[in-house]
Each structure stands twice: as C-alpha cells, then as structure tokens.
Amino acid sequence: MEIALGLEASGQQFIWVVKKDENNGHESSEDWLPQGFEKKVEGKALVIRGWVPQVQIIEHLAVGGFVTHYGWNSVIEAISDGVPMAMWPALADQFYNEKLVIQILGIGVGVGVSKWARFGGERVKSEAIETVVKQIMVGEKSEEMRSRAKKLREMARNSVKEGGS
C-alpha cells in the first residue's frame, strides 16, 4: 500500500512488478493496492504481476531509475545498464551493496532502512518512496547520478570486451 501511494505521489512514470500469491496463483489487489489505484495511474504506469525479464526492462533507454533490494545481481544489472538506483535493503549483503552504490559509486539513494530483517523488516512510508523516486528521476542530483551511472556502464562493458580487464 505504501509503495503504491509513494509511486503515485512521485508523479513519475513507472513499471511496478509484483509477485503473484504463491498459494492460489493470483493476487488479491484489494489487500495491497489503494482502491482505484490502477485506474488513477493508467497511462503513466504499468503494474505487472508475476515474472518479467528484468534485464530487458532495466536496459531500455526510457528507464531512468530502478528501485531494488540491492541483491548483488540487481546491482550488477543496473550498473551494467547505467541506471541509478533507489535502495531498499533487507538482509545479508544488501546493506554493504547499498553503501557501495550510494557512498562510493554515487549512483543511488536509500529509502532509510537500517536494520537487517529476514521477514517483515522496517516499515517504509509512502513519503520515503516518493522522495527517493524523485531523487533518482528529477533534478540536478539525478542528472549527476545518471552521468556517473553511464560512465560506470561504459567501464563495465569495456571490461568484458576482447582485451578488457
């Protein structure tokens, strides 16, 4: 619910991929979406239920940012495609990855989660989602992150070329 409210309030176009309910193969949107949400964001948002080809979405030129839990694969995919990230770590190495991306590489913004949690975790409010989405999508800071992300993309691509590092 908080994610939906934050994404809508950001005013940005978005794709939101959500997992289907494992128990019955479909979702119950009334449990996690504000009433009328999909109608309100129609034309500027896409809510996809189930699996998507994440790499193909992230590498699309129209993608300006990526909200991620900061698993290493997602970080590498975003860096390889030059996309700034909004960080939402939950467990394991994700907090270290967040520090790398935000403090060292300078291509991310955190939602404010600070404690490791296998289940549940810290609650993130819609205002935090709205803020980080705007930070990676709009303004001078987002342009700086995007520029650094593009440089890192080139470095990553050059490293795997013939004779690369």
Structural domain tally: 1
- Any idea what the shape is? globular
- By CATH reckoning, the class would read Alpha Beta
Kindly name the structural category: alpha/beta
Alpha carbon gap, first and last residue? 44 Å
Based on CA atoms alone, the radius of gyration comes out at 16 Å
Q: Architecture, according to CATH?
A: 3-Layer(aba) Sandwich
The order of strands across the largest sheet is 3-4-5
- Unreliable residue runs: none
Oligomeric grouping of the chains: single chain
Write down the secondary-structure element order: HEHHEHEHEHEHH
Mind describing the biggest β-sheet? 3 strands, parallel
Number of helices: 8
In CATH, what is the homologous superfamily?
Glycogen Phosphorylase B
Q: How many distinct beta strands?
A: 5
- The CATH topology corresponds to Rossmann fold
The portion of residues forming beta strands comes to 5-15%
Describe the structure.
The protein is α/β, with parallel strands linked by helices and 165 residues long. The protein has a single domain, classed as Glycogen Phosphorylase B (Rossmann fold). The chain has 8 helices and 5 strands, in the order αβααβαβαβαβαα. A 3-stranded parallel beta sheet has the order 3-4-5, with helices on both faces. It has a two-stranded parallel ribbon with strand order 1-2. Helix 6 links the parallel strand 4 (85-87) and strand 5.
